[in-house]
Design brief:
By secondary structure, the chain is mainly beta. The protein is built from no helices and eleven strands. Strands 2, 4, 5, 6, 9, 10 and 11 form a seven-stranded mixed β-sheet that branches. Strand 4 (33-39) and strand 5 (46-51) form a beta hairpin. The chain is globular.
Length: 123
């Protein structure tokens, strides 16, 4: 069984930054691609970043390109999301996910989820 715990959310002003962390326990996750998703009230859960097992490949939707950076430290069983130049529309609960062999943008493909961390961007 895998447990994922996110941290690092908070309240920032527009233009600011947040660094989210997702620590895994129960099983090492070097075999899994890892991704971050977000969900705001009334909206579908959306993909914001993904990283391959080695960390050499990453994927972002257009809304995140150039502002968000995903990274991982397999020795620490942790994945990170650095978010810069934040906008009010980035306000959401951010979730990390694991359990796929490739980076996929469909949340239904992921087996393991954290409980989420709230990120709020004020205008």
């Amino acid at each position: 069984q895998v447990q994922l715990v996110e941290s690092g959310g908070g309240l920032v002003q527009a233009g600011g930054s947040l660094r989210l962390s997702c620590a895994a326990s129960g099983r090492t996750l070097g075999w899994s691609a890892m991704s971050w998703f977000r969900q705001s009230p009334g909206k579908e859960r959306e993909f914001v970043a993904g990283i391959s097992q080695s960390g050499r490949s990453t994927s972002y939707p257009d809304a995140a390109k150039g502002r968000f950076t995903i990274s991982r430290d397999n020795a620490k069983n942790t994945v990170y999301l650095q978010m810069n130049s934040l906008k009010p529309e980035d306000t959401a609960v951010y979730y990390c996910a694991a359990g796929t062999l490739a980076i996929v943008r469909d949340p239904a493909q992921y087996e393991y989820w954290g409980q989420g961390t709230q990120g709020t961007v004020s205008s």
